[in-house]
Amino acid sequence: MNAGRIRENLRQVEDRIAEATRRSGRAGGSVRLVAVTKRRPNDQVRALYESGARALGENYPQELWGKVESLADLGPRVRWHLIGHLQSNKVKKTLPMVAMIHAVDSLKLLRILDEAARSMENPPSVCLQVNTSGEVNKHGWEGGSILDDAESIAACRSIPIVGLMTMAAFGTDGEGARPSFVALRGVRDRLRERTGLALDELSMGMSGDFETAIEEGATLVRVGSALFEGAES
Ligand SMILES: *Cc1c(COP(=O)(O)O)cnc(C)c1O
What we know:
alpha/beta, about 40% helix
């Protein structure tokens, strides 16, 4: 395992984030990196942590649970983010482990989270997932349909709803992804008006398109493969 390569990759991604932020005329530090560690072995995750990554993203609740346990010695400075689909029967166990849940994809799940958060002192924040690409295999509210649920969303007062999340169409590059990012920002602006929630966070952008996402207002980019290139050797 090549820890030096991981460190170098992280620096490069951080530099690219800073550059895209500056180029977009946005304030330094307004975009945060979630380092996606799904399917990566623990030694690679440790190398990433030792290089300075603190917000770590996992897709699958069960894999998250395993990593939280086997990497517990890294301590409370690790902030785990669940970026994939959460099944309602996994809510109770997952909630106390994470700082943020990015992909709340239905009103039903949001209500379950809201109920569970009632008994927590520090519940995690959540983003609501919108399917902006129209692909049938993507989770989330279909485009603007989330606006129909504005009232019900605003009624969930225990779980902090901090923004929206999307994934661009599979196989698109930066420019191909741009319409998805523009759409998410537009839906956010309208949902903000209807709910009175600030919805400051836009979780959008992955290895192939995070700079475009930043240009369109991303505050959280979820980057995996770019951090681990060449790490196996
Ligand atoms: C895997 C994954 C990412 C990271 O993708 P990369 O292309 O490896 O950067 C981001 N978001 C979600 C939801 C993912 O599943």
